[in-house]
Amino acid sequence: MNAVRLQSSAAVILLSVLFVASPTGTASEITLRQRSRVSVPEAHQAVAVDASSFYAISNRTIGRYEKETFRPLAKWTAPDDSPVIHLNSGIVVDGRLYCANSNWPKSPLKNSIEIFSAETLEPVERKEFDENEGAINWVERHRGSWWIAFAFYGEANVRRTHLVRYDDQWQKTGSWTFPESVIERFLPNSNSGGAFGPNGRLFVTGHDHAELYVLTLPETNGELNHIATVPAPIAGQGIAWDRSDIGTLFGIVRSSHEVVTMRLSHRDEYAALKQPVQWVRNENNPVLPPRKGEFDSSRVMNPWVVRADETYRVFYSGGINGKKQRIGFATAPINDLTQWDRVGPLFENGGKGSFDANWSVLPHVVQISDDRWHLYYTGNAGKGTGLSSFIGIGMATSSDGKTWSRTSDQPVLARSGEHGDPDAIGIAGGSVLQVRQKDGSTQWRFYYTGCPTTGKSHALHQQKTICLAVSDDAIHWEKRGAVLLRDPERDYEDIAVAGPVVHQEPDGTFRMWYSAIGSRWGFYSICYAESDDGMHWRRGTKSDDNLQLTPTGDGWEKQMVEYPTVIREGEHLRMFYCGNGYGNTGIGTAVSKPNTDTAR
């Protein structure tokens, strides 16, 4: 069971792709970047994965390996009299490994789902199917349903290959066929693997080609939509998205018995930045420290700045005694950031059972019309573990931007609760803006933080993604999934990305400042990205290109810098941000250096 060959993840392969239509109607390109390869004897049919392990699957043997070290952990081989003949895929759900099994190419055909303990690989259950024409090739769990592909082989029959959806009682609830453009790539064999990606797209493979076919499902039964063909450093067979590490895909190379890990990316992610910014910190930082005896006595965090004539109004979350967090604001003349008047709390948190019973943090304020303002904020419900306590984003309203009323005990945007989603276990704020679209219309966009998982390791416990939701009225939101993921190739953002602040420039392009957690410091720094469509973001050609502010000195920001807000001041930008302990030391400010940022 020993791993016999290892290739370093430092060898990164960037692969060209076909075009994919984004939700904005523009064209962009999906890529898969190879991260690692390891040879294990069981890598013959498929691979499955969970938070700690991957599972290499052959016809009648499964090997479990530690993800980080490739150390073998368990092995199971079917006894001679076992009905397990031809395992084809695997998925781990709630501590169980589900594998598709058939006796193909024997006749009569028999199909089953074989269920194992994910920890020990001991068989625990099996589900037999009446379907005896198509062979079960993969099984998947997605959106509260089971999905199974039945494969048919050969020129005359491959078009009968189809995908079936089942409920928890294994009753059929839908069926779809594959489009001709994909069938032609399956030949001379058939569909081999399939898995739903982080934004709900279905990725499938054939038996041979080094590529993935990206599909979407029509709302009703029918034919799947083929939106892209993506080259990949595998050779078909069973694949698995790592639902504990959003954007990471596992596959195999059958001929060399290799398990390959890949990372979802796009063509321009590492293109050069067009408007990089350098910053000069204010010598009086922190300009907004905590105050004794007030609602912000122990923490001043999450600034959001709005300009009113010649005054800055900085909204923030104030903490008292390390327990309750509530929203307030401070005002100061724009030419004197040493004189602040503070107001707050603006409203009280909700009662027991509400999404914001414990904390109100991450305020974001946007003017909707002349007499209507929205204040979006993140609630901590006071229950759950770590990031799972942040179950929703709520809203308060105002007619003047000063006096506010909380609208509901329920959030306007809630975590999904669906394992594998980028906001499965927690959700937190970012920024809302009204975007000018190419057809002349406008759209409200909410760039927010998604928390996909929890776990004992720092990387699992703190993993965060940047997500997008859209709206016509800035109240009712439709989620569009993750738009920026952690970058395992850069050690200052290889754990999490969060708290996005997005601006649209006069020429229609976008700029984002965000907080990142990486192994370099173990805490937050502030990073930067650019985009032509607000969906696909550039990080710069080499490491540190997009690193903006880092922990520094031996004082208020030596541990971390995080949660920026940015506003333009004529020919330069001003940033407010918080320091150690998520604002235990307060809020500071910085301005962009001359000639490092130009108004467009």
TrEMBL record:
Molecular function (Gene Ontology), one example: hydrolase activity, acting on glycosyl bonds
Superkingdom of the organism of origin: Bacteria
Pfam families, alphabetized: Glyco_hydro_32N
Listed SUPFAM superfamilies: Arabinanase/levansucrase/invertase, Calcium-dependent phosphotriesterase
Entry annotated with the keyword Protein biosynthesis: no
Family: Belongs to the glycosyl hydrolase 32 family.
Protein name per the record: Glycosyl hydrolase family 32 N-terminal domain-containing protein
